[in-house]
Specification:
It is a single chain. The protein has eleven helices and nine strands. Helix 1 packs across helix 2, helix 2 crosses helix 3 and helix 10 (239-251) crosses helix 11. The protein starts with 21 loop residues before the first helix and ends in an 8-residue tail after the last strand. Helices cover 41% and strands 14% of the residues. It folds into three domains: 22-65, Orthogonal Bundle (434 Repressor (Amino-terminal Domain)), CATH 1.10.260.40; 79-176, Response regulator (Rossmann fold, 3-Layer(aba) Sandwich); 180-296, Response regulator (Rossmann fold), CATH 3.40.50. The protein has a five-stranded parallel β-sheet, with helices on both faces. A four-stranded parallel β-sheet has the order 7-6-8-9, with helices on both faces. By secondary structure, it is an alpha/beta fold.
């Protein structure tokens, strides 16, 4: 309880402070709303002094353009979607994989630098998931053959960029990728030059381009050098399956003396399996793993 005469007015909790609008800037600067818009957007033929004056007033008032108004004016939401569709709608926490986590971080930074916000979305083919979010475009990581998410986005008129060369005639607007075949061949040649005579591969069962091209390059290399293929495939979104596949590969009667793992967890899985079978790395077994993780640094 407070004493009489000592009451203090309190600000209502939860109310947002009034934000300066474009009309406030125009009034304070003594110019029209059109002049404010042109000055802040770098448009129109305005004296440098006027443009500078308007921007100083806007900064002093804390004016920020309304995202909703910008959307109505330009027809753009300022949102870019990001999703990993490699494994369909299987339960998959993709940020646990260093490559996907780094991709999300880099995409967020690149989007913000260009005035966009990144929205990470599930790999759902349900049309309502994608129609409920107004997107200016979407980055799809490693889409599979006939990817239903890509097809739905294209049907809705949303531009799609693929991180990974799309398989077949998947209708993406653009794609970016590495030369996976050359990378695999270079790794296998390096292992062979280091003395390996029976090189194995730990690969996945999905139909994305990275997995498919890498596996094909391995099989072609084996045919070229006259080595029998020694590989195990597993659903890469399941971390437990990777450990089991690594164990199966090293448990073979004529096991490999070198292994290339296509996915981030393969290095630790193979090291654990090697310890179980008494194999010393690199004395008994050479290992190469494709990863963005600092764990292997």
């Amino acid at each position: 309880m407070t004493a009489a005469g000592n009451h203090q007015a309190s600000r209502p909790i939860g109310r947002r402070l009034e934000r300066a609008g474009i009309r406030d800037v125009a009034a304070a600067a003594g110019v029209s709303i059109t002049t404010v818009s042109d000055a802040l957007n770098g448009k129109g033929r305005l004296p440098d002094a006027t443009r500078r004056h308007v921007r100083e007033v806007a900064e002093r008032l804390g004016y920020r353009p309304s995202a909703a108004a910008r959307t109505l004016r330009t027809g753009r939401s300022g949102l870019i979607g990001l999703t990993v569709t490699t494994y369909g709608e299987e339960p998959f926490t993709f940020t646990e994989f260093a490559y996907f986590a780094e991709m999300a971080r880099a995409a967020t930074s690149a989007a913000l630098a260009r005035g966009y916000a990144l929205v990470i979305l599930p790999a759902s083919s349900r049309h309502d998931v994608w129609s409920n979010v107004a997107l200016d475009g979407t980055v799809v990581i490693d889409p599979s053959d006939h990817d239903p998410v890509v097809m739905e986005l294209v049907r809705q008129g949303v531009p799609v960029v693929s991180d990974g060369r799309p398989a077949g005639s998947l209708p993406v607007h653009a794609w970016v990728d590495n030369d996976h075949e050359e990378a695999v061949l270079g790794i296998l040649d390096h292992l062979a030059a280091a003395g390996a005579r029976r090189i194995g591969l730990l690969t996945g069962t999905s139909t994305d381009t990275y997995t498919r091209l890498s596996t094909t390059a391995y099989l072609q290399w084996c045919e070229r050098v006259g080595q029998e293929p020694v590989y195990e495939s597993y659903p890469a979104h399941d971390p437990c399956a990777g450990a089991v596949a690594a164990d199966r590969l090293l448990a073979r009667p004529e096991g490999p003396d070198a292994v290339y793992g296509l996915f981030d967890p393969n290095g630790t899985d193979l090291l654990a399996a090697a310890r179980r079978y008494g194999l010393r790395v690199p004395d008994d077994l050479l290992l190469v793993c494709c990863s963005e993780s600092s764990v292997y640094a």
